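Appendix B. Raw example, untouched.
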Amino acid sequence: MIPVKRMSVRAKSFVFWVTRGIHEIPFEYLSELPDHELFRALAVPSRDDIRRLFASGSKDSKQAAKHTVRGEVVDRIRQMTYAFAVVTSAKFESSIPAPSELCLRSAHDYLHQCVAMKQIPLEIDEDLTRALPKAKKNPPRLTETDYTSAAGSLGVDLPAIKAVASVESGGAGFGADGLPIIRYELHRFQAKTGRHFHSTHPYLSQPTLSAGAPYHNGKQLREYSLLYNAMLLRYNGVPMIEQAIESASWGKFQIMGENWSALGWPSALAFASDMYVSEGNQLSAFVKFVKNKGLDKALKKHDWAAFARGYNGPLYAVNHYDTNLKQAFRQNGGKE
């Protein structure tokens, strides 16, 4: 087995073009991938996109499957066709012989790791849809004045707001790379996409919060990789960018993207784009969310269980969300 952790530049180029409905260019980049990455790269886009790519069958596409290595023309169409059959059927294809022993081993690796074990085929470290803004260097952080203003707007004490930030994101709205802190929720994506990707992309779509837990590793690189992978999917030709963004919680207070309309944003993408700007925007989203959900009274009274239920959901006690809030409130100088 040859492990593949990060998506290569060529694989990125393949995915970039195939998700835009272009056929000849993706074949060229796909032909240059080594066997161990060939299967995994084909597994990233929606299966419909891959089927359309191979159904195009134009002379230009087949010619693009050839490239030159040390002056010799190498035709990769057999490897690509075999990988296509394995990925779309999710099993060994006895009707199509493996072009080589290496290709067979790569197919076994893919089927074991990505189908049987349901692992992520490739980590993606950038937004290949080009929809999200670029990360800002040193985005503005919250000041005491910001906190005080928000506390006054909600009619609560300042430590109560700081407690929520501490529990939700460890008090940080951005990572060192300037990207907003996020968490991608697989069960929310499945609910928003009607289980269309549950069998083909299980690492992005699961029925419950607990079922999605194994795909997180506590690192923001993984959270963004999940988000970027989901944004690349299309159903009936429609990009799932909005659904992916809606399925993630954003920033210092971890507001779910699905709340964009109720909080006054014109789209999920517009909401997420504002979360890239500053912690001030993230705090504004928090204030709007608390008011919209009527949670300001519970926060003012330090009724942590009531606030936790409305903010984090009915299963808040499983992760001791209410007791964590109470502890964080005291650590931030609050008094009951």
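End of appendix B.
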